[in-house]
Design brief:
The structure holds 2 protein chains of 2 kinds. Chain A is α+β, with helices and mostly antiparallel strands. In chain A, about 40% of the residues lie in helices and about 20% in strands. In chain A, the strands form 4 sheets. In chain A, strands 1, 2, 7, 8, 11, 12, 13, 14 and 15 form a 9-stranded mixed sheet that branches. Chain A has a 3-stranded antiparallel sheet with strand order 6-5-16, with no helix packed on it. A two-stranded antiparallel sheet of chain A has the order 4-17. The chains are: A alpha+beta, B alpha+beta.
Chain lengths: ~500, ~100
């Protein structure tokens, strides 16, 4: 078992005019299932194609067309459930959620209201080293995505693209366990990380791969504890749902302004109406989606086109046995095997590709030194070029070669950075570059001694000053390093100068 | 449970079916007959009986995750009352 001892973070407190208030937040995250074809048709899920080119007649809801479920999408939902330590329901069923909108040609969305495929699970949300919030997952169900309406191409018309219509989504519903805007964003980050590790969702928020509806309410300190004890929502305030957010920054900002709006209403003696709201990042406010309210009578009923979805326990176990190492386990292993700090391990395991890169570098090398080079030098350099780790011009093999040269004392830190830049720009084998360009560190004391003697002989004034003020020894070290092209061992130079000047 | 004229009007509106005002009482009456039949069905004791989802034993048919369809923009749009630049064009809907 993993050692996951942790403390719970304190809930965010917002000071109102009369009271302190706490926040209670639950999230519904819509994650696009990574698959080639749609949930009920053989059309492609690829993003950015010509409008209405990824459309089968099922997706366009042509009369007589029947849905046939994509088995891989079921597998992906099961895998996600297992990755969130959730219970898998071997029997689930599809329902129709009825509403009219131009980008929903069927007039209903196929979803799973009454019998979702995944039940209760959990996500550990890391806030700081040793401080985590355990967010309980209530359920995950599979459903169809809607199409896309574009309103700004014509003053009188809306344009509809059905490419996204019928793409498989997982709706991941949390319990109201999130207690502040930062926790909400951290929850999204962690969920995204787990989904990406599992390969069940690309997590590309800009393309709308991952979107969140956030339920926010406020309560007085102490009320939330009563709710947890009794599971009675009467202890909490009335919630509002902020729809469809696809950026961590907006999620945080929206929760903050929505909470303050509710506090102002309640403190003025008013009541919060339960409603759906939209966040406007330009104005920094949320506003009611009244049009949506009227239509909120979805008349759910079991979809007569689809039999219940029955899966076998043996299949679930097969999927379970193929689960990858998940972020929490990987981080714990990095801390233990490579003796990394919590911070370093967190940074290196944030993305699967970074973790794999680091492991290739650190294999049989010093973990801490490898982590420093990957995080500080490589990540820093890539960021400057706006590249990600998969686009790194320096392979783990090359970076490992540079670290070997440092570990063997062949080059010092300063030269290593120059060497890294050469490898980054020009490529090549680090050991050979050092050999060919004479970058090897001078460990030969006589050569360093000659350089030290020359600097002392050439600068009698500085010698006098240094004798009065030993701090000036740094100036001599600089001169010697310059004279040796940076290749002298700095420690040896320091010792020699101190000795020669009789400091 | 009884459906009145107002409920019948609401159901019609949600289904986007235009029903003239003078046709509503008859519609409400039809709804009530349907509900009455369902109430009659509700009298059957089904305690412990699993809901039947299919007459013959069947398993939900599955497809493999392969792209086998699509790439037919012109066909998809061919029945649309209005289409422009590959999109369906509909009267403006703005949130």
């Amino acid at each position: 078992m993993l050692d996951l001892t942790y403390e719970t973070p304190k809930p965010k407190i917002i000071a109102g005019a009369t009271h302190d208030w706490e926040l209670v937040i639950g999230m519904e995250v819509h994650a696009q299932i990574a698959s080639n074809a749609k949930l009920f048709s053989g059309a492609s899920t690829e993003f950015g194609n010509e409008p209405n080119s990824n459309v089968a007649f099922v997706d366009a809801a042509m009369p007589g067309m029947l849905p046939v479920i994509n088995e891989f999408c079921i597998e992906q939902a099961v895998r996600t459930g297992l990755g969130l330590a959730a219970e898998i329901n071997l029997w689930s069923a599809f329902d129709r959620k009825n509403y009219f909108y131009p980008d929903l040609p069927q007039g209903y969305q196929i979803s799973q209201l009454y019998h979702p495929i995944v039940g209760e699970g959990e996500v550990m949300v890391d806030m700081e080293p040793g401080i985590s919030r355990l967010v309980r997952i209530e359920r995950i169900h599979i459903e169809q995505d809607a199409g896309k309406s574009i309103h700004d191409m014509d003053p009188n018309m809306s344009f509809v693209d059905l490419n996204r219509t019928g793409v498989a989504l997982m709706e991941i519903v949390s319990q109201p366990d999130i207690r502040g805007p930062e926790e909400a964003a951290a929850y999204m980050v962690k969920l995204r990380q787990i989904l990406r590790y599992l390969g069940t969702c690309d997590g590309n928020m800009q393309n709308g791969n991952l979107r969140a509806d956030v339920n926010v309410s406020i309560c007085l300190p102490g009320q939330y504890e009563k709710f947890i004890e009794t599971n009675d929502f009467a202890h909490l305030g009335t919630r509002c749902e902020i729809k469809n957010m696809n950026s961590m920054r907006f999620i945080q900002a929206a929760i903050e302004v929505e909470a303050r709006r509710q506090i102002t209403i309640v403190e003025a003696g008013g009541e919060v109406n339960q409603e759906t709201r939209l966040y406007d990042p330009d104005k920094g406010e949320t506003r009611s989606m009244r049009s949506k309210e009227e239509a909120h009578d979805y008349r759910y009923f079991p979809d007569p086109d689809l039999l219940p979805l029955e899966i076998e326990q043996s299949w679930v176990e097969e999927i379970a046995s193929s689960l990858p190492e998940l972020p929490d386990e990987k981080k714990a292993r990095f801390m233990k095997d490579f003796l990394l700090s919590d911070y370093d391990a967190t940074v290196l395991t944030a993305e699967l590709d970074s973790a794999a890169y680091f492991e290739a570098v650190a294999n049989r090398r010093d973990g801490k030194l490898s982590a420093n080079w990957v995080i500080n030098e490589l990540f820093g350099r890539l960021k400057k070029d706006d590249k990600d780790i998969t686009q790194s011009p320096v392979t783990p093999y090359q970076l490992g070669g540079i670290i070997d040269l440092i570990e063997h004392g062949d080059i010092n830190g300063k030269i290593a950075k120059d060497l890294f830049e050469i490898v980054y720009i020009q490529g090549g084998d680090p050991a050979k570059i050092v050999q060919d360009r004479g970058m090897k560190q001078l460990t030969d004391t006589s050569a360093i001694e000659a350089a030290v003697d020359k600097v002392i002989l050439d600068n009698p004034d500085q010698v006098e000053k240094a004798k009065a003020n030993p701090k000036l020894v740094g100036w001599f070290v600089g001169q010697v390093m310059k004279a040796t092209g940076g290749k002298a061992n700095p420690k040896a130079v320091n010792e020699l100068i101190a000795f020669k000047l009789r400091l | 449970m009884s459906i009145d004229k107002a409920t019948a009007a609401k159901v019609a509106k949600l289904a986007r079916i235009k029903v003239e005002d003078d046709a509503l009482p008859a519609l409400a009456e039809e709804f009530n007959m349907i509900l009455g039949f369902i109430e009659q069905l509700n009298e059957v004791d089904v305690e412990g009986v699993k809901p039947m989802t299919s007459v013959t034993p069947q398993r939900l048919k599955r497809r493999v995750d392969q792209i086998t369809d699509g790439d037919q923009q012109a066909l998809v749009l061919s029945n649309a009352p209005d289409a422009r630049e590959g999109f369906f064009a509909v009267p403006k809907v703005v949130e």
